[in-house]
Amino acid sequence: MYNQEDKDYEEYLHLYVNKRGCEGDQIPPTLFHYTNLDVLALILKNKTLRLSRLDVLDDMEEEQCRSISEINVYTYVSCWTNDAEESIPLWDRYTIIGKDRQTGIRIEMPSLPFAQRDVPKFFQGNYSNDTGKWTMEENIDMFNMGKYIKFDPINLQQTLYKICYTDNPYCLKPEVSWKFDNGINNIDPYIQGIFKRTVWSYQKEYRYVIHLIGGKDFSPNKYYDLDLTDEALQQIKIVTSPYFSDDNKILLDNLLNEYGIENAPQQSSLYNLIR
To answer: For residue 77, what are the β-bridge partners?
Structure first.
């Protein structure tokens, strides 16, 4: 009998086969990121966007998979939304530091902001369920350097994914290890970081996703920074939170002037409307 479990698995396989980043008219012209004044200062100073490891995100389900528990530490994401209308839940969840609600901002930036760079090329590697370790060819210079040995994708303009909201258990806890007929296990972490439970759908999330597979001396940091183009930085637009203080407005103006950002910050449309 064709039961719900079969339907869930069939849906998962369809999504797995068709997984890919946003392309063409699927890409919004700009995206929005809710954060705080300190993070904006670091973005402008370092000209980078910081991606976080899956296992440090607020959605704890994102670090789960069916075969290899530690594979989540090699997937990094930065979370944005395409919703131009201000979101009270996003203001309250992602812009407050401790009890301080007065430094929150929303950044608007072009959706393809990354500077291209030379990156290591892929080479074959396998994972053993028996030993719980990677087996790699060691005749690659990058491996012997002890750096990351796989970077996905090579084209940094193909990192953008629209989150798929689902309650399908196979999507929320995906299979990342596939065994071939010859007995070799293939690792495919690229199904991670693109599904979330439907209770999160209010976020209307897009995210940048990259995967790093470690060399013999590679210990994954909790964060990974990608370079931003000067053009993307100059197009940044800021909306201050409904709770933003006058003192922080002065700091924000000085910060934008220091880095030559010409777009004047806008006050939240919810200012003086919520407590």
So the answer is: 52, 209
Assess whether pLDDT exceeds 50 at residue 54: yes
Domain ranges across the chain: 4-267
CA distance 208 to 196: 15
The pair of structure tokens assigned to 187 is 């690792």
Q: Please give the angle made by the CA atoms of 26, 80 and 189, to the nearest 5 degrees.
A: 75
- Measured in residues, the chain has a length of 275
DSSP letter for 4, please. H
Digit-coded pLDDT (tens) for 114-172: 886 544 443 344 444 455 444 444 333 333 333 433 444 445 556 888 998 989 888 88
For residue 28, what are its two tokens? 């919004």
Within 10 angstroms of residue 177's Cβ, the number of other Cβ atoms is: 17
Which single residue is written with the structure tokens 């350097």? 145
What does the alpha-carbon distance between residue 154 and residue 139 come to, in Å, rounded to a whole number? 21
Q: What token pair was written down for 208? A: 């940048």
